[in-house]
Amino acid sequence: MATDLGSADATWSEQDPSIGATTDVELLRRAWRNEKAGPEILQFQDALVQRAREQIQLLEGTVEEFMENGTDDLVISLYQMDLDRTLFLLRSYLRIRLLKIQKYVIHYSKTQLWDRLSEEEQKFAKKCTDILEKHFERSVLSRLPYGYQSILRQSISSEEDDMVPEPQLDTFVFCKSKGAVGSFQLDDSGDEIVDLVADDLYILRYKSIKGLVEAGRIDLV
Amino acid sequence: MAGQSDPDLSIFTAPEVEFLAEDELVEIVPNMRMEALHMICGDFGPFMPQIAVKVPLWLAVALKKRGKCAIRPPEWMSVERLTQVCEAERESPREFQPLPFHYIEISRLLFDHAHDDIPNLYMVRSLIEDIRNVRFHKVETGLETISGRTHAVKLKNLSAMEVNIVRPFVVRALQAFYKHDSPEMIQQPEASASKRSQVVDRVPRRDLRPR
């Protein structure tokens, strides 16, 4: 059942996002938003982060130059604000990823999701796992009887790793379509179909739109 | 850093939503001369006295605070347009009228920093307040129709701040319904009451709040 809580034609809502050149800030904003709103870690935006870093460095240099050659204070402060905003976005993006990695570090290191992490993030994750293992070992596991000492399994008789927390993909997310996505299946049984037109806003199960988010066809809000 | 929110319910803080809104473009009329700004978020200007130019809201507010420009309130922030929206909003109980995705934050920022640039300030403010209330009421009534069978909720034209406010409640409600409606949860009573066999699972499930 798709509960319709509202639909009216967009006449003067936002500008079409596909029109005009997208700036890196816009792309970073989108990546930040999706990362914050999605339960599972997404692919690290390597090239984008690299570009954002370069632009920040460049502007930092420019602002310094301005300070030396006595440019108007107003102009300097405006550039500084632009710089601060971009820095916030970049930091917040990196931080939210670290938070997510920390939370499900073992799960990420065991699955192909590992490839979504940047090199630095992988280093961080490895350290994190080490510390976590040592901590559990010292505080609890070493005092448990034989057979119950694994950090990954409840007991030696478990057939698979059943003590690894995983992100909850069953959760619901708010998402907005950029262009027309068309109809797609919501659940495994195939009796729930949703037709996404441009600029629609839906609450859907993350699992069912995971692919669309990863492909960048739909944005989380 | 302030404003880092709990990743569990993936909520943005209100300042974070406002941060996003500050990138929306507005028109300003500068009263000074300044060369074009080549910023990371885009190129803006050049700025000439009395010549309108589009800039992001944060830049407009920064200039306004220093008395360097007047902000032109967006077209949708006129008494006329808002009255239309408000009426339409009241007349259609199941639809949201299209408003900018960040209308709450934009209007709030303009009320706070550029109140002298908004004609009929009090009227505009109370209209937006009314529209917000009507829309929230609609969201609330809409939520009553959610049931275990709800796989999708359509909320076309709901704005960013509205999404953010209803998110924690809606997501938890949907999760709870989903969890209790899953086959594992339904199986349990079957084990004890054998009369109700597998057929139970086939019939459409009852809404918790039948209308």
UniProtKB/TrEMBL annotation, chain A:
Residues 74-138 form the GINS subunit domain. Transmembrane segments: none annotated. It comes from Acorus calamus. The keyword Nucleus applies. The GINS complex plays an essential role in the initiation of DNA replication. Pfam families: Sld5, SLD5_C. The keyword Ubl conjugation does not apply. Residues 167-221 form the DNA replication complex GINS protein SLD5 C-terminal domain. Belongs to the GINS4/SLD5 family. This is DNA replication complex GINS protein SLD5.
UniProtKB/TrEMBL annotation, chain B:
SUPFAM superfamilies: GINS helical bundle-like, PriA/YqbF domain. GO terms for cellular component: GINS complex. Keywords: DNA replication, Nucleus. The keyword Nucleus applies. Residues 13-71 form the DNA replication complex GINS protein PSF2 N-terminal domain. Its main location: nucleus. Residues 198-211 have a biased composition (Basic and acidic residues). Residues 185-211 are annotated as: Disordered. Residues 76-172 form the GINS subunit domain. One of its GO terms (biological process) is DNA replication. It is found in: Nucleus. The keyword Nucleus applies. Belongs to the GINS2/PSF2 family. Component of the GINS complex. This is DNA replication complex GINS protein PSF2.
